[in-house]
């Protein structure tokens, strides 16, 4: 199963899993859920377009409005999914609903919802994938040690371009890790917040690492240059870290402690500096 919901600044795209329905009732429920999702997408896109073209907004107020719209939309989505699972736990639509919302849930809640579902046989593989993803999130939750991974950044020069996550984290510094991609509008919207934190705190006890996922390396390099990404980077990571960390949506920003303990996950906006400042005691 691939990630099912992608949010970006100017686009909310919905890609439904291949849930096959056994009965007309199942088909009708899935069709209604898809229609409700598409309506949510349309409303989101319209509001983002309005915000993006509002000349009365400052850059900061525009990004705040976009963030609020994102939070409101994901909140509505999660409520829709919970409602579907509660009403139809034995139907294929319950699996489809959990596919759409689990990326926004704490792992324990996602697992509890999955355990409520009496999944039809034809959704068995999707359920297995969901369990694997939830398990990945639980094993890399706040308070857990980081999970290492290796990336060949340039296949044509594998020996010199191979790096490990552990080359940058667990080395005695606090490290803010940004999983991002050049095509992701919300990722680029968070970069000024990361720049601010880097310029204010970078030193002997703090650093930043960007890890490019689901992206073309040349596009990553161009976007990094354009947006002032001057700190350490891992490019061409693709799905390696997202599978290990159960990351289904980006940006995903985490703070790792000096010993490699994951202190915070899914940081956004002002919460980035708040987490760093608190950790550093400044």
What does this molecule look like?
- This protein is an alpha/beta fold and 282 residues long.
- The chain has 2 domains: 5-139, no CATH class; 150-280, Glutaredoxin (3-Layer(aba) Sandwich), CATH 3.40.30.
- Helices cover 50% and strands 13% of the residues.
- It has 10 helices and 9 strands.
- It has helices spanning 24-52, 59-87, 92-101, 107-116, 124-139, 158-161, 185-201, 217-226, 240-245, 270-280, and strands at 5-7, 12-14, 150-152, 162-164, 174-180, 206-212, 232-234, 252-256, 262-264.
- The chain has a 5-stranded mixed β-sheet with strand order 7-6-5-8-9, with helices on one face. It has a two-stranded antiparallel sheet with strand order 1-2. A two-stranded antiparallel ribbon has the order 3-4.
- A hairpin with a 5-residue loop joins strand 8 and strand 9.
- Helix 2 (59-87) packs antiparallel against helix 3.
- The longest helix has 29 residues, at 24-52.
- The protein is globular, with a radius of gyration of 20 Å.
């Amino acid at each position: 199963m691939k990630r099912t919901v992608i949010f970006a600044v100017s686009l909310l795209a919905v890609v439904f899993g291949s849930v096959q329905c056994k009965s007309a009732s199942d088909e009708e429920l899935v069709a209604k859920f898809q229609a409700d999702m598409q309506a949510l997408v349309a409303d989101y896109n319209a509001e983002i377009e309005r915000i993006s073209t509002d000349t009365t907004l400052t850059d900061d107020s525009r990004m705040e409005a976009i963030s609020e719209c994102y939070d409101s939309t994901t909140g509505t989505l999660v409520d829709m999914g919970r409602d579907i699972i509660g009403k139809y736990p034995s139907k294929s639509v319950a699996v489809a609903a959990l596919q759409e919302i689990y990326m926004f849930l704490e792992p324990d809640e996602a697992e509890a919802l999955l355990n409520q579902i009496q999944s039809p046989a034809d959704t068995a593989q999707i359920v297995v994938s969901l369990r694997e993803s939830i398990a990945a999130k639980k094993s890399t939750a706040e308070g857990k040690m980081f999970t290492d991974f290796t990336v060949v950044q340039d296949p044509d020069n594998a020996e010199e371009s191979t790096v490990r996550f552990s080359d940058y984290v667990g080395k005695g510094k606090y490290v803010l890790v940004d999983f991002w991609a050049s095509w992701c509008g919300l990722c680029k919207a968070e970069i000024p917040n990361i720049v601010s934190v880097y310029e204010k705190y970078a030193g002997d006890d703090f650093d930043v690492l960007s890890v490019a996922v689901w992206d073309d390396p040349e596009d990553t390099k161009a976007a990094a240059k354009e947006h002032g990404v001057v700190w350490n980077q891992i490019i061409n990571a693709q799905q390696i870290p997202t599978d290990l960390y159960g990351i289904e949506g980006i940006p995903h920003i985490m703070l790792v402690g000096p010993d490699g303990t994951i202190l915070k996950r899914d940081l956004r906006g002002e919460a980035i500096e708040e987490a760093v400042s608190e950790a550093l005691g400044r």
